[in-house]
Amino acid sequence: MQEITKDFSIQGQKVLVLWNWSYKNMGDELILLWTVRLLQEQWKDVIISAYNPSWLSSFFSQFNDLKPITYLHEFPKGIRSFWKYFLTKRKEELKQYKDVDAIIIWWWEILTEESKSSYRYWNLWLLPLLKKLNNIPVYLMGWIQIPTKKNNIKFFNRLLSKTKHIYARDMESVEKLKEYWFNNVDFFMDTSRFAFPWESISKQGTENKIALINLNKNWEKFFDDLQGECENLLASGYTIKYVPVSKWANNVYNDILFKQDLEKNLLTHFEIVDRENDFSAFIQEVKNASIVITSRLHLFLVASYLWTKTKVYPYQMKILKMKKIMQDLGIIENLNWNTSWNL
């Protein structure tokens, strides 16, 4: 059985966390939240590079235990963002990279050949840090995938040569990295596990026939399956509510678009259960639900942490990997795991 540890050894005082470029994505926020808490428990000065620093700062303001954080706009990765960065005061943030004592590159799953252009993005994102990479410790977190493409392998090897330690959230990554040649790697549970006192939440009310659902672009091929689930739930007297795990403006990361399509087809309206303004209230809603139906990894994880019955449509390997971790930890005994579809 896997062991959960909170030992998280990071050298240096000023620690830069290179965050995933995603925006308003619950999974990213929860992983980052506990990563920050772990660092602040060690009295580190935390600096976060984020897509939208003002929004992230506002979301984190509801967690009163957090100490002050320095937020930076992420380094641009496209032509439009390049001009927006260098023609405004944002470019002045570059000087803060000079004082960084350590770097955590987290949400490592995006540096994967499953995600289009992720290697190009990371090459650009690390440009302000090229000189620092040779002189300060670098840490990686999350899923680690060994690349197969020639140019990606070169970049991967170069970065590993500058990496002090890796905290991988699945044992497969640990084993494959050691087989590859990198030995300074340990299993470290997805930090969302510690982001909230899940055990303190008690179910309110009895026999709540409430279903929480979610759909995202990666699960689009299962739209008809979810619609059928909704029809059966409504016929059985359930109230269905919709959870927008990701709320970015584009079509790929805007879960609200699928809510609208479902409502149109079912001739009904779903109340939104959102975590943005009151995360504690959101957690209570998940706890009170009879079932959660989702393909989003971290809605599945939150429901599992709260022991809410969950049905999952896995669309990426990361979900299947986390299923095994959760089983090894004994957290998903009541999970209704749907495995009748291939990735």
Report what the structure shows.
The protein is α/β, with parallel strands linked by helices and 343 residues long. It has two domains: 14-194, Glycogen Phosphorylase B (Rossmann fold, 3-Layer(aba) Sandwich), CATH 3.40.50.2000; 198-337, Rossmann fold (3-Layer(aba) Sandwich), CATH 3.40.50.2000. Helices cover 34% and strands 15% of the residues. The protein has eleven helices and 13 strands. The chain has helices spanning 26-41, 53-60, 79-86, 118-125, 150-161, 171-180, 223-235, 256-266, 279-288, 297-305, 317-328; strands spanning 14-18, 45-50, 70-73, 102-105, 138-142, 163-168, 185-187, 210-213, 239-242, 271-272, 291-294, 310-312, 336-337. Strands 3-2-1-4-5-6-7 form a seven-stranded parallel sheet, with helices on both faces. The protein has a six-stranded parallel sheet with strand order 10-9-8-11-12-13, sandwiched between helices. α7 links the parallel β8 (210-213) and β9. α7 crosses α8 (256-266). The longest helix has 16 residues, at 26-41. The chain starts with 13 loop residues before the first strand and ends in a 6-residue tail after the last strand. Residues 334-343 have low confidence and may be disordered.
Question: What attributes characterize this protein structure?
Answer:
Rossmann fold, about 350 residues, 11 helices, about 35% helix, globular, disordered C terminus, six-stranded parallel sheet, alpha/beta, seven-stranded parallel sheet
